[in-house]
Amino acid sequence: MNLSQLRVDTVKGIGEESAKALGGLGIYTVQDLLEFFPFRYEDYSLKSPGDVAHEDRVTMIGTIQSEPSIRYFGKKKNRLSFRMVVDGVLVQVNFFNRAFLKTKIQLGSTVTVTGKWDAHRLTITGSELKFGEIERQGNVEPVYHATSTISSKQLQRWIKVALEMYENQIVEPLPATIRERYKLLNKTETIRHLHNPLHPELVKQARRRYVYEELLYFQLRMRVFKQQHRELQTGRQLIVSRDQLDPFFAQLPFTLTGAQNQAVDDILADISSPYRMNRLLQGDVGSGKTAVAAACMYAVVKAGAQSALMAPTEILAEQHAKSLADWFEPLGLSVALLAGSVKGKKRTVLLEKIATGEIDIVVGTHALIQEDVFFHNLGFVITDEQHRFGVEQRRVLRSKGESPDVLFMTATPIPRTLAISVFGDMDVSVLNELPAGRKPIETYWVTHDLFERVLGFIEKEVMAGHQAYVISPLIEESEKLDVQNAIDLYTMLANHYQGNIQVGLMHGRLSAAEKEDVMSAFAKNDTQLLVSTTVVEVGVNVPNATVMVIYDADRFGLAQLHQLRGRVGRGDAQSTCILVAKPKSEVGKERMRIMTETTDGFVLSERDLELRGPGDFFGSKQSGLPDFKLADVVHDYRTLETARQDADVIISSNVLEHDEEYAHLARYLKEIGAYEGEKID
Ligand code: ADP
Ligand code: MG
Q: Where would I find the Helicase ATP-binding domain in this sequence (predicted)?
């Protein structure tokens, strides 16, 4: 008998009334009951004063050292206090409004106290007191969401009975191969440990297993929907192959990393397939997304179509146009820049060439999506730093061709989960390794009084042949003040270095031509120090720069700091990032600390979400997500990603048809295949 078809009142002790009340919690079947998990656990394992943190909930066992004393406040309130020795440490115990316990507390006897720990005062504010040593099966107790009619304890009892009756009928849906691969508990153990853990570690393991299962099912669902979606979205089919790329790779000054190669393969497979590609290329700053894009653009051009790359800023478009021209022109491809700075006659001529197909590759800013831009045969569209563009802009760019394949590139780690949970129909390629030889950027946090020393450090690095950025404080409310800050800092630094170091100045009020001059002077090492506002935040690539100083760093969010830091560490030399800040808030301080602790964008975004809370980020979008029992797409996104890859393999291999291990999953998919009403937008 399938537990999902067995009514909950078949459990001994659950009558009609109780079954009705359980229905209020969404529990109708035995399976519902068994998978109604505690929302937290009470940990009663014994702790020592030395190894618990301030404000932790703790349980300690001690020997009473002082007669209890009682203080009364007003009529009804009182505090009972005594001292006990726990592992050789004298601990103060306070109980509020339990004066009646006084007679039971005897000098020299043993008690177990559970409560909140104050590490500064070595005090427990108690909530539970047991005489002697406690006897428990385990030290962890589940706490369930209770209702007015069902208590947590009641649920605990029913679930215990249900387990006794039906434990041996729990079906294992996961193939043994997968369970072995990730060292996952079996389903029965999982359910048992989630309800009756003997140890907190077992809860963790059980949770890990359950979350994986939930997310794998979720991903399988997504995958099935995606396929249905794909059948509706036919695109063009270009004949591209890896061999065609040989000339491109031959002149590229480096060889691709494994991750880059994999991404190129993913993209080429999409381009040569009949459905329209809709793919996200995600790679941390400096992971080399441009080279991946370039290789694929090259293949598309060889197959007879045009490619377009849209970047969010002029500086970035300019830089891309330059590196693509360097790579492609020797190979006989024509590359053009279409940005706001291209005007008048020049622009007319360029538009003509794009329309006739004389230009193979067009790089640009928003200027690319103006109404009068027509392509001859646009087959492949890329947006760099895609989060900078709105949905509408991306749509317009796509509409410039006939169902062109589309690639979005981003360094923001969050969209990986977003892409999966919100843009359910997007494929994802991840660059999860940096080019060989990169050294992790060292990050320091200093206060303003050390700025002199920072300037000395910059000088030393410049003397060693390197370059540096100094980012001026951000004033978001006022561009004028923002620019003024940059100018002031520039003047100060130019004075300080007195011509020993050439200083450049970059900000948003410069004209496109001026920006270009400033950037190219820095790229050529004519200036060694670039003072800038955040206009250099994304994409800028000057590998010789090794120092990034961020002034008033606490004004920036973690994502922004990470992007800024990513402007260095792009070559073989050791790079350094210095955060100059005196944050006022705890969160501000925490941000600085996190920056010094990790350079991994995924870890950072995770911490960022923890600091800000997922609500901020997901907002109403979260409502589009299925209700998970334990999984949390924000905190479990690594598992989400693993599950996604596994779901891909499961669907694309034919294990579902042939392999007995996968029978359960196969049945499930057949069932959901029938849910035609469900949508994924
Ligand atoms: P991002 O992913 O941040 O856009 P870029 O594409 O700008 O990174 O690449 C960062 C730097 O690394 C560039 O100078 C690029 O030429 C270089 N690069 C890219 N791939 C490799 C590689 N496989 N080996 C060495 N250097 C590489
Ligand atoms: Mg980039």
A: 270-431
